[in-house]
Design a protein that fits this description.
3 domains; 15 helices; alpha/beta; Rossmann fold; GMP biosynthesis; GMP synthase activity; about 500 residues; binds xanthosine-5'-monophosphate; single chain; glutamine amidotransferase; GMP Synthetase, Chain A, domain 3; 9-stranded mixed β-sheet; ATP binding; about 30% helix; 5-stranded parallel β-sheet
């Protein structure tokens, strides 16, 4: 295992992902959080930071103590802090260095093994190391800075390295190779962190944690809950009780199809048809937040009622993933902001259940790989994200059963079309929005006065920012035709070309 000490850089998660991609397990912790030098710990990486090492409140750690025990690699701020802590000098540069630079090797070292001289590296710093401490050696420079990479070579401590650039970002073309050199050749990591090894270890751990108790879990049809449930099911079989609620605002045929997939995977899941309850409580609700609240509250009611029918339940399973739980260091000071995340808000407190979260340390792409390893069908693994309140926030204004039926038809044509044309996986999320607007059309000799749907498709990495997907005109034309010709009640189709920000992905 590798520990990444976070000083608040926006790239810290990318370091973790790059380490995981090298099949080495790692965890991010805030720099000020104590840790132990347990036997499996092989090395430490110090992240970048929005701070300058010369600021009075600059965060610091005891690098000399670390390096007595383990190899250490400082990245950007981490490198500057290392240089400063050992008596070197870091100054504000006249020229800030951002973006592309070329690394010129000055010395051979295992860290830069197989790295091309002149390799492109990505910089993002305004301070520079101007003098290295005694006993440190320059490994590489760039056109504008004297110290792009350094090492401290002594026999009495473990190896200590610093990189002024960011090896973890995509634009450092050989950055991942440099990280791999550090992990494998310097720290001695075995690269055995694979989906298969994760499955084996996790199933064994779950067996231990759960014993002969029962686990209940709400399933949504989404990737995270499905993969988490499958892992738990591998450990305890039918003592996992999954509950999948039809809230009336799922996609067309989704309830039946998802239940069928669960059965094929071998999950013990109960499907609860609560459509009418949701429709009756959604009646007259037009405000988006009010609709969300109704759906959230009813969901908990239904789930709780079903859960009470199962005896011996001690645990609540959840599909929480790593980005939801990383404690990141706030940019505004060394205090920490902890993001907490409950897929089923409010439940654990009232039901006195312990949490089982087998995906707590995985990134999304790793969850997908584990899912495939578990034999979950690829079309389940590659599903777009779908909001908890479902089509209710894609029907602007009041939600009725009739409007849901209308939107479901249009939505199905659109999503199936994306799949048929090979566009589904190139889009991060797609959906159809029913606008509360009727307009005039003409069909044959008849005048129509019907609803409009908007098609939405975005590209994104995490849903925080998004661009509208530049879908081919021919495809949009086909979908528009198909919807208007087949869905009675819709006579106009428009395409949403707003990015986020300033718009959002959903319309409500
Ligand atoms: P926005 O519309 O905020 O959406 O750009 C970003 C992502 O979040 C999803 N979303 C939700 N998911 N409950 C959810 O579980 C919600 O109330 C909710 N609102 C938006 C949205 O689908 C997109 O993936």
């Amino acid at each position: 295992k590798i520990l990444i000490l976070d000083f608040g850089s926006q790239y810290t998660q990318l370091i973790a992902r790059a380490v995981r991609e090298a099949n080495v397990y790692c965890e991010i912790i805030p720099y000020h959080k104590p840790f132990t030098f347990e036997p499996g710990l092989k090395g430490i990486i110090l992240s970048g930071s929005p701070f300058s090492v010369n600021e009075e409140k600059a965060p610091t750690v005891d690098i000399p103590a670390f390096v007595q025990q383990l190899p250490v690699l400082g990245v950007c701020y981490g490198a500057q802090l290392t240089a400063k802590e050992f008596g070197g000098r870091v100054d504000k540069s006249n020229k800030r260095e951002y973006g592309r630079a070329r690394m010129q090797k000055q010395k051979e070292d295992v860290l830069l093994n197989n790295i091309t001289d002149g390799s492109q590296v990505w910089m993002s710093h305004s301070d520079s190391i101007v003098a290295l401490p005694d006993g440190f050696e320059i490994l590489a420079t760039t056109e504008s800075i004297p110290v792009a990479a350094f090492r401290k070579m002594t026999t009495d401590t473990c190896p200590l390295y610093g990189l002024q650039f960011h090896p973890e970002v995509y634009h450092s073309t050989e950055g991942k190779k440099i990280l791999k050199n550090f992990l494998v050749d310097i720290c001695g990591c075995s690269q055995s962190w694979t989906p298969a090894s994760f499955v084996n270890e996790t199933v064994a751990q779950l067996k231990q944690q759960i014993g002969d108790a029962h686990v209940i879990m709400a399933l949504s049809g989404g990737v995270d809950s499905t993969v988490a449930a499958t892992l738990i099911s591998r450990a305890i079989g039918d003592r996992l009780h999954g509950i999948f609620v039809d809230n009336g605002v799922l996609r067309k045929d989704e309830f039946e199809q998802v239940l069928e997939t669960y059965r094929n995977i071998g999950l013990n899941v109960e499907g609860i048809d609560a459509k009418q309850l949701f429709y009756s409580e959604l009646k007259d609700k037009t405000d988006p937040e009010a609709k969300r609240k109704v759906i959230g509250r009813l969901f908990i009611d239904v789930f709780q009622e079903e859960a009470q029918k199962v005896s011996g339940v001690k645990f609540l399973g959840q599909g929480t993933i790593y980005p939801d739980v990383i404690e990141s260091v706030s940019v505004h000071g060394p205090s920490q902001t902890i993001k907490s995340h409950h897929n089923v808000g409010g439940l654990p407190d009232t039901m006195h259940l312990e949490l089982v979260e087998p995906l707590r340390y995985l990134f999304k792409d790793e969850v997908r790989k584990v899912g495939l390893e578990l034999g979950i069908p690829a079309d389940m693994i590659n599903r777009h994200p779908f909001p908890g309140p479902g089509l209710a926030i894609r029907i602007l204004g009041e939600v009725t059963e009739e409007k849901v039926a209308l939107l479901q038809q249009a939505d199905q044509i659109y999503i199936e079309g994306l799949k048929k044309h090979g566009l589904y996986t190139s889009v991060w999320q797609a959906g159809t929005i029913l606008l509360p607007v009727k307009s005039v059309g003409v069909m044959g000799d008849e005048r129509t006065y019907e609803f409009t749907v908007a098609l939405r498709a975005v590209t994104s990495v995490d849903g925080m920012t998004a661009d509208w997907a530049h879908l081919p005109y021919e495809f949009l034309a086909d979908i528009s035709n198909e919807i208007i010709n087949n869905v009675r009640g819709i006579n106009r189709v428009v395409y949403d070309i707003s990015s986020k920000p300033p718009a959002t992905i959903e319309w409500e």
